[in-house]
Amino acid sequence: MSYGERVPASPRPLLAAAVTVLLWASAFVAIRHVSTDFSPGALSLGRLLVGSVVLGAALLKSGHAAVPRQLWPRLLVCGVLWFGVYNVALNAAERRVDAGTAALLVNVGPILIALLAGLLLGEGFPRTLLLGGAVAFGGVVVIALATSSGEGSDLIGVLLCLVAAVAYAGGVVSQKPLLGHLSALQVTWLACTIGAVACLPYLPSLAQGLGSAPASSSGWLVYLGVFPTAVAFTTWAYALARTSAGKMGATTYLVPPVAILLSWMLLGETPPALALLGGLLCLAGVSLTRRAPRTAPRGRVPRRAAGP
Prior knowledge:
Layout: H1 12-34, H2 40-62, H3 72-93, H4 99-106, H5 109-120, H6 127-147, H7 155-178, H8 184-198, H9 203-212, H10 215-240, H11 245-251, H12 255-267, H13 273-289
């Protein structure tokens, strides 16, 4: 095939990213059902334990490779930051700030991912990624303004949201190079298990919550562990292995508008018209980040891009 001729792209990474966005958005609905029955740490530990068991069972069937010693530092960073710190910080923050403020602050994460991936992973700063990310973040701002309660934000809650955003970005950037050596399933299981171990101090709180929570809340906890954790993080890793960290980070701008639609359909919460406009901006921005760069004309030798 001559240079300049496009190779047909597989739709599987895009479908995997769509599954991740849908399931992560559904997590917001599930968390609303259990937030009064489980503390932030207990909720994080419970879903991570369930996710680790489900992923471990799947890994036993599919097989796994030996983990080279040099990969363990990145695995520890990914597991502790993203699966541990991110979940606990976000769960705690959503008890202190309204949904709009949380969506706005946590979605600083994709911007940090694009910056860190450009600097540390050699992904550069594609114009379409920067422009699309700006448009999508503008959509998140519109959603935040539309859904904010106007009661003011707790300073600790704001700081927790920012901690969650930084942990999310650090986890993704550390995860990306791992996927060149290990399967998406193995990386997800290892990181999830590391996150669960980091959250073990919350075990007494989890036991207390399970003892007093209604069966429906325990069922939602299992749902969070199986689908938004085990399934969604695996489909995320699958897609991340096949695209840049910057582009994958930008897809999470779709989580707030999808969460709004799910709350509308499942909880009867009618979203403000301004929030729908923000959702359209998020969709337009993410679509822009997915646009392929122009191919060089034939006969011109392409400049080799740096990579991890």
